[in-house]
Amino acid sequence: VERRRRDKINNWIVTLSKIIPDCNLDSTKTGASKGGILSKACDYIRELRQNNQRLQESLKEVERIQMDNELCRQQVD
User: Residue ranges of the BHLH domain (predicted)?
Assistant: First the structure.
């Protein structure tokens, strides 16, 4: 039971290493450490969250500009 639990955890860590950029197990002979993979995964998630927040702010700004543009068009008409 314990071996299956460890195998599942190890398989998920390997899966993470394939998803996270610059985090390949084959980068060295022994592969990246589990802790290193988890650390890079946390860094990547933080980066994605920051990018998502910036994109949301940009979207709000675009929507504001579109509304201003529409108001200006209505004033011209």
Answer: 1-48
Q: How does DSSP assign the chain, residue by residue?
A: -HHHHHHHHHHHHHHHHHHSTT--GGGSSS---HHHHHHHHHHHHHHHHHHHHHHHHHHHHHHHHHHHHHHHHHHH-
Q: How many whole angstroms separate alpha carbon 64 and alpha carbon 62?
A: 5
Domain coverage including residue 61? 1-76
pLDDT-wise least confident of 32-36, 44-48, 51-55, 62-66: 32-36
Can you say whether residue 20 is alpha, beta or left, with left for phi > 0 and alpha for psi between -120 and 50 degrees?
Answer: beta
Whole-number Å distance between alpha carbons of 20 and 15? 9
